Amino acid sequence: MSQATLTLSRLPTELWYHSFTFLNKNDLRHLCLVSKDFLPEGRRLLYRDVALKGSIGMMLWTEMILSSDVHPPLVRSVTLPTRANLTGYYIRALTRCLSMLPRLTALNIKHAMTVDSTNAYLVPEMLEGCSSCLVAFHHDLADIGLNHSLFSPSGFYSTHAGIERLYLANTRIQDFLPAHLEEKIPPNILPRLLTLHIENLEILRAFRAKPIRRLRISETVFLTPSDIEKLGLILDSFRNTLSSLCIKFSSPISPSEETSTLAEVMEMLVMCAPKLSHLYIFGDVPELISGMHSDAPRFSSSLRALSNLTCLVFGISRLHRQHACLSTDSVLPETLVDHLFMWSDKLQEVTIGCFSPVKASSSSLFGRNSASFVRSSAGGVDRVSLCQVDCTLTEDAWATA
């Protein structure tokens, strides 16, 4: 029998298209030059998520989009750089470019300067022309005037009512909202907002009327009675919708200050966020090291009361873990996990480990002294790969948990 040459065109595309997703863009670009069979899928992946870096990269990409009918429909996500030296011509060109992306669903702006900065290039018109398909918006905008313009009756948020995921890096509510909106954002602005990632609890009060399901708070909350009470009052506004919460705690700055326990935090969540299914707690929580011996009854009671909770993640800072290793009260993660699964029969996944705040935006948050466990079908507990847990904390995966 003769040896026939098997070409890619005769193979089901599923056999080799999937492998493209594991290639870096340079390798994928070279593959597209090898065979026209690679071109459709390769081009789709190359231009799907665009992260622009610097002035030259932005100008070249802008010119390519404006001169092509093929590339604009392929773009789903765009990240604009922190700063770029753009002339008036290229600022106008970038504005036209963003308006030519009919399927753009995510826009990320790493642009923390004000309009008076030397390298500032962002103008309100640039955003208002974006696709109506936009569902995710991330920005570090520090310019008060630009932020406030987004909330005008015909501004960006009013014309992009489909936004479901919002990340705000602002530090003060005055920088984000006009004064008349600081207490409550009107119903016609961001009516479909489901996922919110903020860096300041103060901003959260403006979203009280929104159907927030997933909330990620980057600001550290101190384990004091006053801070826990403040957090509870804010979370109570979302008690009927909130299903996923990611938050970071820290011990009080002053040793003389009264300290709240993790059991008290859980009791607050039972009252203010009873529908939680995913809970991520990071920071310095002493009870995780000692196994919660002193507060086990209160903690277990609260854990059972959160009847929808299926996923629980504890991330302890490396420094706190190092100090805890010297303590005689520390327990193994396996021991604590056994208790957690025993206390709640609804719980399906538990992760306990060390994390680094520096790597909070990377693909891996946890270190070597970390472990993840799932409840097996036989009723026992199985240990699983940590990469399965790390991926749940990346921005896209967490936002759809």
TrEMBL record:
Top-rank lineage group of the source organism: Eukaryota
Domain F-box: 5-50
Origin species: Leucocoprinus leucothites
InterPro entries: F-box_dom, LRR_dom_sf
Protein name: F-box domain-containing protein
